[in-house]
Amino acid sequence: MSPARGSASSATGAELARTLHVRPGVGVAAHVVQGEGLEIVRIRVERPAVILVDRGIKTVKPARGGAVRALPGQMLLLAGGHTVDFHNRVTDGERYEARWLMFGGTVLDDPYYLATARRQSAAEAPQPPAQVLRRVPSGLADAFERARRGLAPDPSRPEAVVRQQLLEVAHWLLAEGMVLRVPPDDARVSGRIRAMLSAQLDGEWSSDAIARSLAMSEATLRRRLAAEGVTLRELIADVRMASALVLLQATSRPVSEIASAVGYDSPSRFAVRFRDRFGFAPTAVRGHARAQ
Fold it and tell me: Which among 137, 88, 136, 79 has a CA at the least distance from the CA of 250?
């Protein structure tokens, strides 16, 4: 999940409160709404994330490890640096709905949090890519929502306060034996390119420009990517499509505007690329709620 920079939020209840707020380096808060159930495959989750399911059922299947499922009122913890498949099911005939909180590295580098985590035996064991918390303490649920709201744009709210709100969630999870860790930097060329593209989705990214940014020749760039099993064209399309998916789920922006935001001048061309990547049209994300 690589949301676009900036923030967008719905203004009325009629828009089902879709929201997306980003504070670079600190965190991301999203309220995801889908009008129909969908299976979304091969999504790269770069940073640790916590998801609270409000409606429907969410199943997460990591590339390595077993699948986990969360029902309404349950919470999922995703470790950063993993590729996963999501299956979001609608069970009430209306919609799937969930709230996300993603943690920036500057939050989880807090010395007190790291020392506390090390003192707990659970912190020494490898954490699976996905875990479910079936009984969410009320204190954790309250802290989770405060942190999400804290990430909303507000010049009067100091960034240090927002960091502490996110840290409160991390400590609540620690009390449940669930540790949030900053994943190691992705040393792969594809990982470095993903980070570069995510910072400017609508940029004119050529192989020459990317190779120069990585201080290598185009031939070396192609060779390194081939060794990782991906082409540059596939990588650029995947980063743009993943970001478009987030914007469709968590904002009420028109599809044409989202297409432009991720680098496509033509909405129809964007729709074709999106369907090629995910197997469904952009409008399917909003389903029968797409008018909202």
Answer: 88
* 65-122 pLDDT per residue, tens: 889 999 999 999 999 889 999 999 998 778 899 999 999 888 999 999 988 888 875 5
Q: Per the structure block, which two tokens stand in for 221?
A: 């760039």
| 30 and 275 Cβ atoms separated by less than 8 Å | no
- Nearest alpha-carbon partner for 44 in 240, 177, 221: 240
Rounded CA-CA distance 181/77 in Å is 11
- Show the tokens assigned to 65: 């490890």
Q: Residue 276: how many CA atoms within 13 Å on its side-chain side? A: 11
Q: Whole-angstrom Cα distance, residue 233 to residue 205? A: 10
Contact by Cβ (8 Å): 264, 270 = yes
Distance from C-alpha of 80 to C-alpha of 59, rounded to nearest angstrom: 17
CATH topology of domain 189-289: Arc Repressor Mutant, subunit A (1.10.10)
8-175: what fold? Jelly Rolls (2.60.120)
Question: Which pairing describes strands 19-23 and 8-9: parallel, antiparallel, or unpaired?
Answer: antiparallel
Sheet of 130-133: strands edge to edge? Answer: 8-9, 19-23, 27-34, 96-103, 49-55, 75-78, 130-133
Q: Which tokens is 148 given?
A: 């999400």
Q: Are 116 and 108 in contact (CB under 8 A)?
A: no
Model confidence over 245-255: pLDDT tens digits? Answer: 999 999 999 99
Chain centroid to Cα 239, Å, comes to 12
